[in-house]
Amino acid sequence: MTDATQAPGSGQAGPAHTALHAEHAALGASFTDFGGWDMPLKYGSELAEHRAVREAAGLFDLSHMGEIRVTGPDAATFLNTALVGNFAVTAVGRAKYSLICDADGGIIDDLITYRLGDTEFLVVPNAGNAPTVAAAFAERAAGFDVTVRDESAETSLVAVQGPASVAILHELVPEAQRALVSDMKYYAAAPASVAGIEVLLARTGYTGEDGFELYVPNAHAAELWRAVLASGEAHGLIPAGLASRDSLRLEAGMPLYGNELSRDITPFEAGLGPVVSFKKAERFVGRDALEARREETPSRVLVGLQGAGRRAGRAGYAVLVDGVQIGEVTSGQPSPTLGFPIALASIDPAYAEVGTELTVDLRGKPEAFTVVALPFYRRAQ
Q1: In the prediction, which pLDDT does 381 show?
Q2: CB of 132 within 8 A of CB of 123?
């Protein structure tokens, strides 16, 4: 087993490497341990990488994410039992954002599931949670006519994100597939040939911009990466790391597991109540606990905060009203696009109305913030 196929916890010394690790090193990337993987934090300026995604395009290595294939006659019913969403109504070629919860309703992970056929789905959990989700699936599959196969160790994932993403892919796919690229709906997927390499092409992402995610076997990942970099150069595409990915997703108001989501947080507290399907017949794991709390006012809710000054709140900082703590920041930093500090915070719902003025304790110094509607940034359509 090589570094390219080793997952965290498989016995290797230090964090795991994706199949593209050498490509990142050759580009001068700074690395960080994320979810047990040695991932590029940035290649140069994280601000430049952020702006490239907003104005042109960025290329991300997301191969630390998991990929679990579910096949068989009971695939949809199994997923309806394992996850909170309703996959029986998901059309072939479409994707759904969902959650996997424990029996108490706490969030084990948030994930995207693609329906590739009537009896075939690809589930994509977050990096650090992929082994946990795979183990939960194996346990929850008992009694169902399904096959659950964890393909994380053999699959790479790269993402082209930004307004130039369609133009870049048009140069890489056969002429007959250009309409597939430009006409693909958001949260949809289809097989495609990119630079002569067969991939699963999905119009999904985590940046708030238009863009695509490309699933490819490890053996072809480096060739695909280089081809996209070369084609994208004329369009302003540059490689982008986890630092810019985090600032981009925060501007888009997208939650990060471990910050906004955890086993101690239910979908209602995370603002994800609509993701839970109570209409489906299946008794999904966590349903009883969530149904019991469905009509209750959550003890905390997730809100967006905009700073009045220049200093940013960070995860763990206390949110105050009249000097009394009513919550805490879950993610926060200065917004490169908007030019002011932004944050997500979990707070007492009594103070969650848009326009409410709060303070954040910035290491002993109070700073004024205001509750604002999410997302902070929305791209022009």
Answers
A1: 73
A2: no
Peptide bond connecting 375 to the previous residue in cis, omega within 30 degrees of 0: yes
pLDDT at residue 13 tops 80: no
Say if residue 295's pLDDT is above 50.
Answer: yes
- What stretches of 171-293 show up as alpha helix (H) in DSSP? 178-183, 221-232, 242-251, 287-293
Express as a percent the part of the chain with pLDDT over 70: 97
φ/ψ of residue 176, rounded to 5: -70, -15
Q: How far is residue 162's CA from residue 160's CA, in Å, rounded to a whole number?
A: 7
pTM over 0.85: yes
Q: How many CB atoms lie within 10 A of CB 311?
A: 14
DSSP string, 29-80: -EEEEETTEEEEEESS-HHHHHHHHHHSEEEEE-TTS--EEEESTTHHHHHH
Q: Return the C-alpha torsion angle 369, 373, 376, 381, nearest 10.
A: -160
Neighbours of 316 (CB within 10 A): 10
Q: What is the dihedral of CA 162, 167, 56, 113, to 10 degrees?
A: 10
**Cβ neighbours of residue 24 under 8 Å, at least 6 residues apart?**
31, 40, 43, 61, 239
Is the Cα dihedral 135, 137, 141, 147 positive or negative? Answer: negative
Residue 2 has pLDDT above 70, yes or no: no
Give yes or no for residue 8 having a pLDDT over 80: no
pLDDT, tens digit, for every residue of 246-290? 999 999 999 999 999 999 999 999 999 999 999 999 999 999 999
d(CA 326, CA 318): 8
Helix, strand or coil for residue 124? strand
Rounded CA-CA distance 295/142 in Å is 32
Name residue, tokens 């985090």: 246
Is the per-residue pLDDT at 6 higher than 90? Answer: no
